[in-house]
Amino acid sequence: MKRVLVTGGLGFIGSHTAVELQVRGYQCVIADNLTNTQREVQDGIAAITGTRPEWTNVDLADPAACRAFLQSQPKFDGIIHFAAFKAVGESVQKPLDYYRNNLGSLLNLLDYVRANVDCAFIFSSSCTVYGQADELPIREHAAIKPAESPYGNTKQIGEEILRDGASAHGFRAIALRYFNPIGAHPSAKIGELPIGVPQNLVPFLTQSACGMRGTLKVFGNDYKTRDGTCIRDYIHVVDLSQAHIAAMERLMQNKAKEAVEVFNLGTGTGSSVLEVIAAFERASGKRIAFEFAPRRAGDVVAAYADTTKATEVLGWRASRSLDQCMADAWRWQLTLKSN
Ligand code: UD1
Questions:
Q1: What pTM was computed for the model?
Q2: CB neighbours of residue 339 within 10 Å
Q3: C-alpha 200 – ligand 1 centre gap (Å)
Q4: Taking a C-beta distance cutoff of 8 angstroms, is the pair 104, 81 a contact?
Q5: Residue with CA nearest ligand 1 atom 21
Q6: Which residues are tagged catalytic?
Q7: What would the DSSP string read from start to end of 48-66?
Q8: Ligand 1: does its nearest atom lie under 6 Å from the Cβ of 88?
Q9: How much distance in Å is there from the Cα of 207 to the middle of ligand 1?
Q10: Where are the domains of the chain?
Q11: Would the CB of 217 count as within 6 Å of ligand 1?
Q12: Which atom of ligand 1 is nearest to the CA of 126?
């Protein structure tokens, strides 16, 4: 049985990936220090898969703690590294914390990979590395724009660290650039657990619909888009998680053509904020009260992926629709509310 370490495995994307690993027969080991999630997520993974993943509460950015944890474990065949801080606004307030946490944990894990070059390494990157791309849909070779935030910079620098490390030390890695992950597991046993007031659109929408938040503010209606609101590529978290398995298996089967390969993970279709609201209303049967508000600093007008490379090389494509994303996000929200 192949052993895979999922860092941040109790988080939103990590927990869904843990499920996908376990249903495919991988032994999944989670490292998560509960910074942004809850221990009960382990129960949700167990309820879906019938197997309770092993979990260690460890701060991977602490070099000694990370080393001790890795030394205590039998060898890993793969590491999927999700654990990171991810709030754009907070990263502007606390840049040093972001650099220390996001880059520190990456470096500590890569020390292990450098000593175990057969260990497949998957890195969570983001479409934020493209900024406002010059051409849409966005292809992987599009220019990397100066980062808009320390958070975005940790993803850009993370990719550079991977490339330099891989060429010097002979390990292999894949960086996956996520567009906008949303939705929840269709079982409604795991999903997103935002802390405080959600900054992202879909969690705010679902919380607003069940009366936990006030009116949704739509940031900007004067963009040069079909309805004046920003366009994003929203991808179901289960589709996104499945791409991680495809990427990891490519490395395990020695099929990678470069030491570090990069893939966009999106659906290829852009949706406006108003289209997302309409899809949510269809899925939930609820009317959403919203008002237009000024543009949000740092927002790009439009971002959606060209997913040709992931389809051709990984044999993966997103299959779940925006309506399905909304139905699953809403079912999860209702479960949370009734708890
Ligand atoms: C944001 C981050 C991005 C990160 C991603 C996932 C910024 C600038 N970007 O992406 O780096 O990788 O989250 O964590 O923060 N919107 C509203 N009202 C709201 C919330 C959002 O109108 O209350 C709009 C936004 O203006 C945007 C769209 O909805 O057009 C999506 O926003 P959001 O869910 O925050 O994702 P991104 O900004 O694309």
A1: 0.98
A2: 6
A3: 5
A4: no
A5: 201
A6: 151
A7: HHS---EEE---TTSHHHH
A8: yes
A9: 16
A10: 3-184+235-266
A11: yes
A12: 12
Q: Is 243 touching ligand 1 by the criterion CB < 6 Å?
A: no
CA–CA distance, 158 with 99 (Å, rounded to integer):
10
Which candidate, 224, 137, 126, 123, places its Cα nearest to that of 180?
126
Alpha carbon of 304 to ligand 1 centroid (Å): 13
Q: What tokens were used for 99?
A: 């650099």
Looking at domain 3-184+235-266, its CATH superfamily turns out to be NAD(P)-binding Rossmann-like Domain (3.40.50.720)
In this structure, are strands 271-272 and 231-232 parallel, antiparallel, or unpaired?
antiparallel
Per-residue pLDDT of the chain (339 residues; tens, 9 = 90+): 999 999 999 999 999 999 999 999 999 999 999 999 999 999 999 999 999 999 999 999 999 999 999 999 999 999 999 999 999 999 999 999 999 999 999 999 999 999 999 999 999 999 999 999 999 999 999 999 999 999 999 999 999 999 999 999 999 999 999 999 999 999 999 999 998 999 999 999 999 999 999 999 999 999 999 999 999 999 999 999 999 999 999 999 999 999 999 999 999 999 999 999 999 999 999 999 999 999 999 999 999 999 999 999 999 999 999 999 999 999 999 999 777
